[in-house]
């Protein structure tokens, strides 16, 4: 069990460019979440998937943001036409709806992708 | 809208002392989580509290949940420097999205020698 992984770990881009982040969840987890965290704040929910279905999107997720989980495994988060306000840490988490090692319902977080928009 | 408030926001404490962090939330919930975050790092799961009166302990940390008061506490016993980090509580409401975590503002703990 290697945990949740995210790539890249850091991304610096210029305003107006598109960026894409990848998340690989823990292999037996069927739920995958995206959160955004700005400096000094707690993470804020963006969206989540159960298997390949995207079941909820936050109002924070503008039309410039899109997330996919095509085969119910890894997920991508794309931001189009980035703005300086998009600068944040983007966190991915996964969980399972079944009991695994006594840890049902826990969300396990990846290391995050830190985005800086210049 | 669910609100989760933590206090204090910042806590400086000496090694060996005890202290409690409080987490209040504004809607009914039977699921509350505590996470730890070191600077520049991701979140580490500490505790999952799933029922009224739940108490969990790990080392010098003990968490409890009072669903009637909508309050959770994280108690630190005989603090050591290694506990310096930011601690977040997060709540899943009983209605709405099954697993959407709403986080508190965090409590930055600094343990000094």
Largest sheet properties of chain B: 6 strands, mixed
Biggest interface reads: A-B, 23 and 22 residues
The assembly state of the depicted protein chains is heterodimer
Number of helices of chain A: 0
Which stretches of chain A are poorly predicted, pLDDT < 50 over at least 5 residues?
A: none
Q: Tell me the number of helical segments of chain B per DSSP (H or I, 4 or more residues long).
A: 0
- Based on secondary structure, the structural category of chain A is mainly beta
Q: What order do the SSEs of chain A take from the amino end to the carboxyl end, as H and E?
A: EEEEEEEEEEE
Termini separation of chain A: 36 Å
How much helix, percentage-wise, in residues of chain A?
A: under 10%
Task: Explain what this protein looks like in three dimensions.
The complex is a heterodimer of chains A (118) and B (113). Chain A is mainly β and 118 residues long. Chain A contains no helices and 11 strands. Chain A has strands at 5-7, 10-13, 19-24, 31-37, 44-50, 53-57, 65-68, 75-79, 88-95, 108-109, 113-117. In chain A, strands 2, 4, 5, 6, 9, 10 and 11 form a 7-stranded mixed β-sheet that branches. Chain A has a 4-stranded antiparallel β-sheet with strand order 1-3-8-7, with no helix packed on it. In chain A, strand 4 (31-37) and strand 5 (44-50) form a beta hairpin. Chain A is globular. The mean pLDDT of chain A is 91. Chain B is mainly beta and 113 residues long. Chain B is 0% helix and 55% strand. Chain B is built from no helices and 11 strands. Chain B has strands at residues 4-7, 10-14, 19-25, 31-37, 43-49, 55-58, 61-66, 71-76, 85-92, 102-103, 107-112. In chain B, the strands form 2 sheets. In chain B, strands 2, 4, 5, 9, 10 and 11 form a 6-stranded mixed β-sheet that branches. A 5-stranded antiparallel β-sheet of chain B has the order 1-3-8-7-6, with no helix packed on it. In chain B, a hairpin with a 4-residue loop joins strand 7 (61-66) and strand 8. The mean pLDDT of chain B is 91. Classes of the chains: A mainly beta (118), B mainly beta (113). Chain A binds chain B through residues 31, 33, 35, 40-45, 48, 55-56, 91, 95, 103, 105-112, and chain B through 4, 31, 33, 35, 41-45, 48, 50, 88, 90, 97, 99-106.
